[in-house]
Amino acid sequence: MLAFSFGRKKLEMIRFLQFLAVLSVVLIEGLMTLTVNADQGIDVEYAEHMPLATKSMLLDITRTGDTLVAVGERGHVIRSMDGENWEQAEVVPTRSTLTSVVSIGDRLWAGGHDAVIITSGDGGDTWTRQFFDPDRQQAIMDIYFTDESNGMAVGSYGLYLRTHDGGQSWVDATVDVENDFHLNSLVYFGMGKWLIAGEAGYSYRSYDDGETWEPLDLPYQGSMWGALKTGGECVLFYGLRGHVMESCDFGSNWTRLDTGSESSISGAAVQDGLVLLAANSGTVLIRKDGGPFSIYHHSSGVDFSAAISMGNGAFLLAGEDGVHKYPEAGNKGEGDD
């Protein structure tokens, strides 16, 4: 009887010790899970929801499906279905200024200061962060994808990143081993052909999908802030003090165009032969069918950063104080100079 009682107590003790062992494993795994989750989000600052976010400084605008998406300072992302009514995106995992946004199908990517890259698959309402490296002190100035897997990003001090997996991983590459001027804008011509508009006369061309680059011989040695493909192999480079150059042979030969303005140009869009350049101080430059530029002074007087076509001769202009219209109400969009 004593032996049986002792044996039962020993069995209960073994079972109790086994229970403690299992419990400790569960607790350790739980703590590890909590630690991993904390580490994944420990350096993420989400954009604040602000009542005037739709009237903040916006730096780029694009369209995905029926939704317009604009990005700008403090990580602000705003969305609209009609270009009239705008709302702030729900979840944006950055407070860094966003300078560029691009869409392919239902997927969006945006990039900006602190070399941040974020992506969205629901029309720009919620975003996840793919890349973030504030220690390098470089800003992404333009980001472009040719499909949902392959993309490039360029930026300040020669920043050049490439991805082949939809942005899950980004690899540093080099455009110019001898210079690290700002790379401001990407233009894709198809068949592996790219142009980069850059700072201080340094712009580049690639025939092999960005594997190697060669410098362009430009007639103006100032900074080009953007580029617009207008059809075929024709492209406009635009930038500092109203300077615009045109090439129709993929950058081999360039012609300087007289804009009649010294306002620096940051954004552009094209619609059925109608080119719009968005500049500082409310300046809008209009060119029809390859003719001369006319100047329109927008009543807002703000600095514009980007433009997008809305069809039927209408455009939206992103910049200071949010999104603006061209033509304005009651104006047919004719140049006033």
* Tally of distinct domains: 2
Rg of Cα set: 26 Å
* Alpha carbon gap, first and last residue: 112 Å
Put simply, the count of helices is 1
CATH topology of the largest domain: Methylamine Dehydrogenase, Chain H
Name of the CATH superfamily of the largest domain: YVTN repeat-like/Quinoprotein amine dehydrogenase
Judged by helices, strands and strand pairing, the structural class is mainly beta
Overall geometry comes to: globular
**Portion in beta strands:** 35-45%
Order of helices and strands: HEEEEEEEEEEEEEEEEEEEEEEEEEEE
Give the number of DSSP strands. Answer: 27
CATH architecture of the largest domain: 7 Propeller
Per CATH, the class of the largest domain reads Mainly Beta
Low-confidence stretches: 1-14, 16-40
Short description:
The protein has 337 residues and is mainly β.
